[in-house]
Amino acid sequence: MASPPTLPISQSNQGAAAPAPSQSTIATPALRAFLSRLSNSVRHGFSQRRPWSELLDRSSLSRPDSLTEAYSRIRKNVPYFRVNYAILPLVILGRTFSDTETLIGLVLVTVIVVFVSSVGSLLISTLLVGFAIVCAHGAFRVPEDLFLDDQDSPNTGFLSFLGGAASAAAPSLATRV
């Protein structure tokens, strides 16, 4: 019975005069460019965040007269408040947690819940509840004149704020390469 061949773990160039450039040093500029684009995208996204007082203004909430009006409100409110819907703050006992603290808390809770419960049904239920909350807010909030400055914006998708800074950084990256 022959033993299986062993796989090499690493190769050393002890006899070579000049070491060949490693793959990690070649990928470093590309990684820096990617992280720079990601950072710019996140900053651009946070800059489009609306004030929380505007999102939670109770005087702007009213029952829509018809399903068509509710749908129209959803189509106007979701693009306008998309960043706020994506980064809801966590408030416990009157203390507002930062976005980083909220993210860490959500990751920890997610890991615990994933290991304790049924993952598939939980994720689908969570997505449906979140979608229902966003639709309910969008339907009940009267748009008024909040959208006058947003009429010229071609990007109206829920996650379109991620593409703005990244697409602006792409041409500058191409000129350096």
Polypeptide structure, described:
The protein has 177 residues and is mainly alpha-helical. Among the domains are: 29-95, no CATH class; 97-141. Helices cover 59% and strands 2% of the residues. The protein has seven helices and two strands, in the order H-H-H-H-E-E-H-H-H. The chain has helices at residues 23-47, 52-55, 67-80, 82-86, 99-116, 119-140, 161-176, and strands at 91-92, 95-96. A two-stranded antiparallel sheet has the order 1-2. Strand 1 (91-92) and strand 2 form a beta hairpin. Helix 1 packs antiparallel against helix 7 and helix 3 crosses helix 6 (119-140). The protein is extended, with a radius of gyration of 24 Å. The N and C termini lie far apart (54 Å). 6% of the residues are buried. Mean pLDDT is 73; it is low at 172-177. Keywords: Membrane, Transmembrane, Transmembrane helix, Transport. This is PRA1 family protein.
Which labels suit this protein?
transmembrane, mainly alpha, two-stranded antiparallel sheet, PRA1 family protein, about 180 residues, 2 strands, transport, membrane, extended, transmembrane helix, single chain
| Low-confidence parts | 172-177
Bulk shape? extended
Which percent bin holds the helix content? 55-70%
Radius of gyration: 24 Å
**Helix run count:** 7
Instruction: Tell how many strands the DSSP assignment holds.
Output: 2
Summarize the biggest pleated sheet.
2 strands, antiparallel
Q: How far apart are the first and last residues' alpha carbons, in Å?
A: 54 Å
Order of helices and strands: HHHHEEHHH
- Tell me what portion of residues adopts beta-strand conformation: under 5%
Strand order of the largest sheet: 1-2
Average pLDDT across residues?
73
Structural class call reads mainly alpha
